[in-house]
User: Which sequence fits this backbone?
């Protein structure tokens, strides 16, 4: 486990434009010191609920291990597709096997609220993610996937903007960090030239 704080560990990243990319984001900092946000079964339970893929389920350690295995197979297969490389056969087999598993079914509860149910809601949710990954990899959305422009960020997102020029996984996070870094660098250059500090606004 990383030395990151509990807040960081459980700070799930949503809003990336696709549930599969949000699933992949549960493993952060892939280029440096990876941070596992699904460290315990309760983390997976909470992520599935936040992602609205499963309700009222408790994930086991076996399900957590399956989620890790599926997530990394999706990541490698998606990366291969984006780089026009041949994917690993074991990853393809795993992904296809999961996609054939039963998926959640919508049901109405006593208050007429829609809930998702299945033989095992957590495993059904993983099957739904596998199906969504296949549709993403084989569909037109693949060309809209972008890597965050922050060199230290390994997250991917779907660029839904009309010009297709989105650069950051989140403007509030990596975008603002980049702005702050540029501002500080500019101040250092000013000091090095003997100039005055920029006015505070």
Assistant:
């Amino acid at each position: 486990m990383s030395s990151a704080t509990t807040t960081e560990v459980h700070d799930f990243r949503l809003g990336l434009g696709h549930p599969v990319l949000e699933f992949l984001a549960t493993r952060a900092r892939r280029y440096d010191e990876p941070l596992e946000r699904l460290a315990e079964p309760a983390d997976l339970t909470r992520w599935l609920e936040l992602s609205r893929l499963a309700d009222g389920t408790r994930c086991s350690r076996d399900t957590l291990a399956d989620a890790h295995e599926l997530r990394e197979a999706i990541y490698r297969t998606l990366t291969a597709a984006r780089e026009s490389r041949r994917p690993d056969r074991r990853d393809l087999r795993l992904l296809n096997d999961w996609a054939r598993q039963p998926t959640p079914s919508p049901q109405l509860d006593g208050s007429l609220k829609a809930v998702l149910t299945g033989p095992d809601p957590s495993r059904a949710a993983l099957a739904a993610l596998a199906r969504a990954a296949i549709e993403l990899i084989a569909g037109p959305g693949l060309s809209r996937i972008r890597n965050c422009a922050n060199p230290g960020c390994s997250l991917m997102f779907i660029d839904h903007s009309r010009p297709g020029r989105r650069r950051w996984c989140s403007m509030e996070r990596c975008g603002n960090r980049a702005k702050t870094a540029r501002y500080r660098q500019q101040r250092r250059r000013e000091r090095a030239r003997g100039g005055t500090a920029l006015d505070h606004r």
